[in-house]
């Protein structure tokens, strides 16, 4: 502190603190403009707090009316009776949370491996297998397969799938007889 005032004519005569401001230097009884600051307790809080506000007084003034506090600052942490309580949540919080959860689920689904492609199951696979086992030529198998694959023959395919082996062979023989094909291998 002395380094600040070296080389100046300041002697510290006017410097006062809260304990020396009420001491009379000129022996006059005129303390009209001075407040008694000795009734305030010493500041003991952390250094980061605001030192401009004084704590509440403990001066023996026990009145609890609201008019006695006019001009005095409220202690920290007390709420103003005229202020509305603050809203706890904004009206946008709930929709924002819903959007965020949707985005998270989309992100997780994009990061995850794609599901495997569904396997196409041919409901007539047993029919085609039985056709391959018949003792006929490859050209004859292709002819029967093309005929049974037509859209118009879906009912026939279903019936032949559930038919017995003997019925299936008889139908193939009749198919070639109707087409004027010679069926000699069966």
UniProtKB/TrEMBL annotation:
Region annotated Disordered, chain positions: 36-94
Q: Where is the composition biased (Basic residues)?
A: 70-90
- Regions of biased composition (Polar residues) lie at 53-69
Its domain of life? Eukaryota
Q: Name the PANTHER family on file.
A: OS05G0118600 PROTEIN, OSJNBB0050O03.9 PROTEIN-RELATED
Protein name per the record: Uncharacterized protein
Which organism's genome codes for this protein? Triticum aestivum (Wheat)
């Amino acid at each position: 502190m002395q380094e600040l005032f070296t080389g100046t004519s300041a002697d510290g005569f006017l410097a006062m603190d809260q304990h020396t401001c009420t001491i009379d230097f000129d022996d006059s009884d005129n303390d009209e403009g001075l407040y008694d600051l000795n009734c305030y307790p010493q500041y003991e809080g952390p250094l980061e707090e605001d030192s401009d506000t004084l704590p509440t007084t403990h001066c023996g003034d026990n009145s609890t009316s609201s008019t006695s506090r006019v001009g005095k600052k409220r202690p920290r942490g007390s709420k103003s009776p005229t202020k509305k309580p603050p809203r706890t949540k904004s009206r946008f919080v709930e929709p924002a949370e819903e959007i965020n959860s949707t985005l998270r689920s989309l992100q997780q689904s994009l990061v995850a491996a794609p599901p495997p492609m569904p396997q196409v199951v041919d409901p007539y696979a047993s029919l085609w297998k039985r056709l391959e086992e018949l003792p006929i030529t490859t050209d004859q198998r292709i002819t029967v397969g093309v005929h049974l694959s037509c859209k118009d023959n879906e009912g026939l395919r279903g019936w032949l799938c559930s038919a017995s082996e003997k019925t299936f062979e008889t139908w193939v023989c009749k198919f070639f007889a109707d087409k004027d094909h010679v069926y000699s291998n069966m």
